[in-house]
Amino acid sequence: MNAKIMVLNGPNLNLLGVRQPDIYGRDTLADIEKRLRARAQSHGLAIDMRQSNHEGELVTWIQEARTTCAGIIINPAAYTHTSVAILDALLACEFPVIELHLSNPHQREEFRHRSFVTLVAKGVIAGFGAHGYELAVDAMAKLLKDQGAEPKPEKREARKRAAK
Ligand code: CA2
């Protein structure tokens, strides 16, 4: 079976394509998922894409991914800036985490400049709109390929950063 990547989307991202197209674009989450599935397949990967408006549900899905997936791509939306619970769940994962944003939070209000998830993310993709999802799956495919060649101690480093 193909390795599976969990693609998680946080609160209000179910409104994509419906409101605020100037910031978040015109694609719906379903449009994005369709393109992402094809892109993942081209790398020999499967995706499991989900969206929730609830922090606890996202935490439960991250825990589920620990045993079913090879990596997580996550757009935590507003929880990026607030959620220690999501950070802790990701810290318990042994696989690569990629943080993703449609907009570039660093060009926006100051409260969006801090990300808890960044402490555990291998990398961050931000500001490329819906195309960022495909960039993230390309990056994940490369990470997993490289990881197959040489296992990395990256989680230990992330835990050290989070403990500071
Ligand atoms: O740029 C991103 O992807 C964000 O994660 C989006 C979050 C925001 O809180 C982060 O700072 C950056 C907001 C998602 C809200 O999505 C909507 C989509 C369409 C209409 C309204 C909200």
Commentary on this structure:
- This protein has 164 residues and is α/β, with parallel strands linked by helices.
- The protein contains 6 helices and 5 strands; from the N terminus they run βααβαβαββαα.
- The protein has helices at 21-24, 29-42, 55-68, 84-91, 131-149, 154-163, and strands spanning 3-9, 45-51, 71-75, 97-101, 123-126.
- It has a 5-stranded parallel sheet, with helices on both faces.
- Helix 4 links the parallel strand 3 and strand 4.
- The protein starts with a strand and ends with a helix.
- The model has no long low-confidence stretch (mean pLDDT 93).
- Bound molecules: ligand CA2.
What characteristics describe this protein?
globular, 5-stranded parallel β-sheet, binds ligand CA2, 164 residues, alpha/beta, 5 strands, 6 helices
